[in-house]
């Protein structure tokens, strides 16, 4: 009885720690990107920052594999050696994530940190629709209702009562948010299809190859976009402590989501996302002078309800 109680308490502590980590990482992500600017510009190269994010995730995957190899030995499912057929599917999601991650920096020319946290939930809609189209998965009526609520919540949060402009975010910001949502949704669905094609394959091996191609594509982006700046000023030109924290945040966020799926559940992710939206808004009030309007509060509340309904719809499907 005592052993069972101790086990439950241990699981609760682990679940709480993972939830807290995901909430902090999610809420600080947009803030760190905005904070890394100087006089409204990125002094550093965003392509080198993206490259380092992929390199850090690759290193973390290797470290996890090294631990598995030490404890369980090398098996057919956890070895890095692979065939051309298996590895040839990873460049597509890696390229999609490259474009999405680069847009993530440029969207802040049109939207603030709290607005970004709201708009990035549009990827729930794109992911749901692409699930239906690509993986032929049925969506429940509650999920479709959640999509409508999500759109309404995102729009309400962006209403601007102090200007002739109806929405705070201009058309360019909405278009970039929609493109990011589609890219993120397609990459996520495609990656899930890859993983489920060989479910026994260790997830760290699959992540490793995805991140290797991510590094390769980001290296090409550096050559195309920032070659002169890197050659003249150095790879780490314009970097600060905030930039380093931002890179670590991006890398650890992916790991935290995996930990949630392993040690917690989807509801935890929902609560973390909802709390992170409000936390980002509150912190932005003190850091960037963000005006927390009634429209934003109501919109973020509707978005939180929509995310919760979508999660419940998945469980009932």
TrEMBL record:
<dbReference type="Pfam" id="PF04142">
    <property type="entry name" value="Nuc_sug_transp"/>
</dbReference>
<feature type="transmembrane region" description="Helical">
    <location>
        <begin position="270"/>
        <end position="288"/>
    </location>
</feature>
<keyword id="KW-0812">Transmembrane</keyword>
<protein>
    <submittedName>
        <fullName>CMP-sialic acid transporter 4</fullName>
    </submittedName>
</protein>
<keyword id="KW-0472">Membrane</keyword>
<feature type="transmembrane region" description="Helical">
    <location>
        <begin position="207"/>
        <end position="224"/>
    </location>
</feature>
<feature type="transmembrane region" description="Helical">
    <location>
        <begin position="294"/>
        <end position="312"/>
    </location>
</feature>
<feature type="transmembrane region" description="Helical">
    <location>
        <begin position="236"/>
        <end position="258"/>
    </location>
</feature>
<dbReference type="GO" id="GO:0016020">
    <property type="term" value="C:membrane"/>
</dbReference>
<keyword id="KW-1133">Transmembrane helix</keyword>
<feature type="transmembrane region" description="Helical">
    <location>
        <begin position="173"/>
        <end position="195"/>
    </location>
</feature>
<dbReference type="InterPro" id="IPR007271">
    <property type="entry name" value="Nuc_sug_transpt"/>
</dbReference>
């Amino acid at each position: 009885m005592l052993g069972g109680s101790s086990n439950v308490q241990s699981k609760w502590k682990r679940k709480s720690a993972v939830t807290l980590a995901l909430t902090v990482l999610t809420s600080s992500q947009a803030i760190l990107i905005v904070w890394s600017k100087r006089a409204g510009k990125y002094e550093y190269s965003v392509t080198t920052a993206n490259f380092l994010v992929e390199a850090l995730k690759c290193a973390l995957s290797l470290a996890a594999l090294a631990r598995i190899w030490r404890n369980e030995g090398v098996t057919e499912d956890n070895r890095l050696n692979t065939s051309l057929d298996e590895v040839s599917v990873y460049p597509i999601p890696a390229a999609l994530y490259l474009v999405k991650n680069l847009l993530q920096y440029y969207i802040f020319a049109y939207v603030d940190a709290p607005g970004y946290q709201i708009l990035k939930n549009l990827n729930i809609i794109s992911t749901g629709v692409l699930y239906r189209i690509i993986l032929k998965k049925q969506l429940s009526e509650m999920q479709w209702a959640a999509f409508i609520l999500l759109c309404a919540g995102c729009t309400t949060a962006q209403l601007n009562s102090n200007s002739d402009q109806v929405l705070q975010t201009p058309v360019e910001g909405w278009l970039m948010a929609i493109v990011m949502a589609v890219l993120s949704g397609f990459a996520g669905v495609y990656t899930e299809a890859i993983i489920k094609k060989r479910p026994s394959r260790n997830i760290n091996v699959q992540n490793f190859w995805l991140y290797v191609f991510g590094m390769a594509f980001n290296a090409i982006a550096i050559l195309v976009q920032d070659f002169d700046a890197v050659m003249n000023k150095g790879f780490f030109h314009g970097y600060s402590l905030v930039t380093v924290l931002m890179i670590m945040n991006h890398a650890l966020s992916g790991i935290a989501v995996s930990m949630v799926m392993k040690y917690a559940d989807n509801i935890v992710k929902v609560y973390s996302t909802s709390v992170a939206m409000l936390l980002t808004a509150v912190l932005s009030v003190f850091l960037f002078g963000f005006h927390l309007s009634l429209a934003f509060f109501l919109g973020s509340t509707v978005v939180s309800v929509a995310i919760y309904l979508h999660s419940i719809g998945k469980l009932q499907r």
